[in-house]
Amino acid sequence: KRPAGAPDKSLARPVSKVGVVGAGLMASQLALLFARRLEVPVVLTDIDQARVDKGVGYVHEEIDKLLLKGRVNQDKANRLKALVSGSLDKAAAFGDADFVIEAVFEEMGVKQQVFAEVEAVVPETAILATNTSSLSVSEMASKLTHPERVVGFHFFNPVAVLPLLEIVRGERTDDASLATAFAVAKKLKKTAVLVKDAPAFVVNRILTRFMGEIQNVIDEGTPVATAEKAIEPLGLPMSPLVLLELVGPAIGLHVSETLNRAFPERFTVSANLAAVVKAGKRGFYVYDSGKPELDP
Ligand code: 3HC
C-alpha cells in the first residue's frame, strides 16, 4: 500500500550511486545502510582526509560486526566494504551520483553551501536529500537552480535499528523526487512517513517537548539520578539522558533552540544542557571507571 501522501511510484527514478556529505556519526551510519540495502556504490566526503578515513573505518568495523553476528557472510562483507569509499573531491565523487544525502553541521548557511557545491557537480536529475533534524527543507533548497530535487530524509539513531524515516516535502519538491525518496526508503526497509516542512518535523517536536520537561525538572533542582529513577516506570527503551548522549547533546540543544525560536511559549532551552554542550561534555554521565556514572 502506498504511504499517505506518496506520489505514484512509477515516477521514481533509479538510484545506482549514492553520495554522503559528511563522515560523522550519522553520515557513516547512513553510508552503511545505503550500501547494505541498495547494494550500490556509496561515497562519503568530508572536509579533511582524517574525517573521511574515520567514517569509512566506522563502516568497515560495523560490517565486521555484522559478519561476526552472522548477519552477512564473508562474501557479502567483502562486497559491502568494496562498495563504500571516501573522497575529498566532491566533483569526482558525485559526478555520477543519483542520490546525495547530507548530514553535516546543523546550520542553515553551511547546509545551503553544501547543497550549492553538490548541485554544481551532480547530474541534472540527481536527488539532494537532507538528514536535518529541525531546519527548513524549503529554505535549504531556496538558493538552488533546481530546488524541486530537494527532499528531507530524516533518520533516527541508531540508524540500523530504528525503523522510522521522516520524509519531508519542501515547498518546491516535485513528485518525481518525492517518489524516488519513497522508493529508496522502501529499499532501505524503513517505515517512511510524509511530514510537513515544519520546525523539527514531528518526532523531534514531541521528543524535545518530553526531553525538555526532564531538563526543566533538573534545572529546577531535582538531582539527575532522581529524575532518571522517577521516569523508569514509563518503560522507555533507554533513559532519556542516555538517549541524549546517543543523539549528541549539541544536536539536542540545537533542536530545542530551533523550536524555542519557532514556538517560544511551548519550548524552553535548558541551562544545564547548554552548559554541558559549552563544556564540550559527552552528556550528563562520566565514564572514568569504564561504567556510566553521573557527573557530580
Ligand atoms: N549503533 C548500531 N547498532 C546499535 C546501537 C548503535 N549505537 N545500539 C544498539 N544497536 C543494535 C545492537 O547491536 C543490537 O543489534 P542486534 O540485534 O543485531 O544484535 C540491537 O541494536 C539491540 O541492541 P541491544 O540489545 O544492545 O539493546 P536494546 O534492546 O536496549 O536496544 C536501542 C538499544 C535500540 C538503542 C534502544 O535502547 C532504543 O530504541 N533506544 C531509543 C532510541 C531512540 O529513541 N532514538 C531516537 C533518537 S531521536 C533522533 O535520532 C533524531 C535526531 O534528529 C535527534
UniProtKB/TrEMBL annotation:
Q: What is this protein called?
A: 3-hydroxyacyl-CoA dehydrogenase
Q: Which organism is it from?
A: Streptomyces fradiae
